[in-house]
Predict the structure.
Amino acid sequence: MDQEITLRVDGKEHTLTVDTRTTLLDALRERLGITSAKKGCDHGQCGACTVLLDGRRANSCLVLAVANAGAEVVTAAGLADGDELHPMQRSFISHDAFQCGYCTPGQIVSAVAMLREAEAGWPSVVSEDLDADEVVLDHGEIAERMSGNLCRCAAYANIVPAIAEVARS
Amino acid sequence: MKPFTYQRAGDMSSAVATVAERPEASFLAGGTNLVDLMKMEVLTPELLVDVRHLVSHQIQDLPGGGLRIGAGVSNSELAADRRVRRGYPMLSQAILAGASYQLRNLATVGGNFLQRTRCMYFRDVTMPCNKREPGTGCSARDGQQRDLAILGASKLCVATHPSDMAVAMAALDAVVHTVGPAGERTVPVNRLYRSPSDGPERDTVLDRGELITAVEIPAAPIAARSRYRKVRDRASYAFALVSVAAAIEVGDGAVSGVRIALGGVAHRPWRATTAERELFGMPATEESFRAAAEAELAAAWPLPGNAFKVPLARNTVVGMLRALTEEAR
């Protein structure tokens, strides 16, 4: 049961025909050859497939491509400005915030979105003052806000400082 | 995943009529639970009617206090709303305690109420499960029991409802607004879920084709100092073993108002009406809190693998009420 859809991915528009069962993740990877978002668990539990979907971080494995026709999608590959890496990407490299690297694109997209959420004053479940205007991204806040991204190599010890450095700047 | 047709609904009445008439059809909103269950073929709808764009995405003040929350509001937006953070902190905390930011950005408020149990036997199509396939039996009762219910369960089904948000909604006396083939109606959250002894395959009292359009939270000054505590196997991103939404008011040393609801212990968010009744007018002491929690849990019917939930629920209730009353001093 095919349907034609248009997706804007990393600034480029694509029109494609997909089976209704195709997730956004599979549309990106299998149909468009955009492999930045990774397939880990395929059940929304690991976060490797995280993309920005109309500006918000989301698990691309749990959304149907047909239900997101016309959507604006940004993957980790689309965060860079040409050859100029995004500050979060640079920070992950300088902090050696990965081992195998499979979860990294999802971690980076998630971290970029997390900083925007914190800037907007969104609280987390560990926030002392739920109503605070300003979010202080200490270790506990970053860990909680990134808990939807698992790292099987357990590179968390470097992921948290990599994010904290960008948060400070 | 089984093949299906996808339809973006044009208007509410045709969406409702379509799903009401076709037993193989299902509404789609955020999809975080439905798409996952379709991948495992736990659910196999042949038609998805997408209603996300049709239901309201607004949070409005109600005249006289309280909030009306459109069913299409994302879990993230509701948790971050200033009015919720100030007036109903237990609701913000409950939502923030569930899932991850990625999931909460996708998941809708309407869908949160209707998510299916995470009972591993429901999610495993190779195992008997009365909720998935009525009459096949319950694998959970003699299986892994850690996550199962201790209150309100039946021999047919001992699964728990997974929502954190719904626990706070139950404590807040929230009311769900629906539109269905028979028109519009309202259902209090505390009457939304059916007992598993009446047939565990249907989670709620909603009719086929009946759609949640909004939820209203009445004004509740008591809720301004309330909180939600979730006990789980991991520090984050895990379902509750036990959770508690609570608020308490004390006047002249006696309890003048109290709200308690439990999560992770039953097929529905469990409003602790017995404990609330026991506490009203009693001295706000740890002894009263303990006696009330024990009165509520006297009806518990645990299995060997989840008996730990009885003292865990009691201690969490006592700890929450103590913290709330100490803060108020």
User: Anything to note?
Assistant: Residues 127 and 141 of chain A are 7 Å apart (CA to CA). Strands of chain A lie at 2-9, 12-19, 50-53, 56-59, 72-74. The mean pLDDT of chain A is 97. Helices of chain A lie at 24-31, 87-94, 104-119, 139-145, 156-168.
